[in-house]
Write a structure and sequence with these properties.
This protein is mainly alpha-helical. It is about 55% helix and about 0% strand. The protein has nine helices and no strands. About 10% of the residues have low confidence.
């Protein structure tokens, strides 16, 4: 009987921690909920009451096949694409070379190789960088390979959309200062000279 009494006295001491364990999960659940509440304000970009900003998708102002909206430009481009290309290239290149030089270069490349569309595709890619237009070089090259007049007319209309006066004889240098600054890279501010000792 003494042996039976010894385990009975030791069992309550062992069972007390076991009975105390089921009472621990409710506080743990409460801790999890409080942990979730405290984690939400720390999430980056999670601001309560402010709608998310919409991303502006780059797009041309007119469609590729809207060239018939300006029949005069389309006729000139169809029969003399070098003229329209020269006007576009001068504006995209910011007046570094004249319309006549670009038109002559396009004509020579087209006459001797038939690949003038590659030169105009290069300026379309350059234009897409400046004015934040769809910037896929492969698609831009394919557009000029498949439909050169439509591509040139679309670029012509896009420059008009940005405020350029695209009439022959006007050129880059006769554009307004506001139009010339569209798409121009921001120049860093002038820093005054170093400190001098008196």
């Amino acid at each position: 009987m003494e042996k039976a009494s010894q385990p009975t006295t030791g069992e309550p001491a062992q069972t007390q921690p076991q009975t105390a364990q089921p009472s621990n999960p409710p506080p743990a659940v409460a801790n999890d909920q409080s942990g979730k509440d405290s984690a939400t304000p720390q999430q980056p970009g999670a601001v309560v009451g402010v709608p998310p900003q919409q991303v502006v998708v780059p797009a041309w102002s007119t469609d590729l096949f809207e060239c018939f909206d300006d029949p005069q430009t389309f006729i000139i481009t169809f029969f003399a694409p070098c003229v329209t290309f020269g006007q576009i290239a001068e504006m995209v290149d910011r007046g570094r070379t004249s319309v006549g030089m670009y038109a002559g270069l396009y004509f020579l490349i087209m006459y001797f190789t038939g690949c003038g569309c590659l030169l105009s595709a290069y300026f379309r890619i350059k234009m897409s960088h400046i004015y934040r237009l769809p910037d896929d070089p492969l698609i831009n090259i394919l557009v000029h390979l498949i439909c050169e007049p439509c591509a040139l007319c679309q670029e012509y209309r896009e420059l008009q959309h940005h405020g350029f006066n695209m009439q022959l004889g006007v050129g880059w240098h006769n554009q307004t200062l506001e139009v010339q600054q569209i798409g121009a890279p921001m120049e860093p501010p002038m820093v005054p000279g170093g400190m001098t000792r008196n």
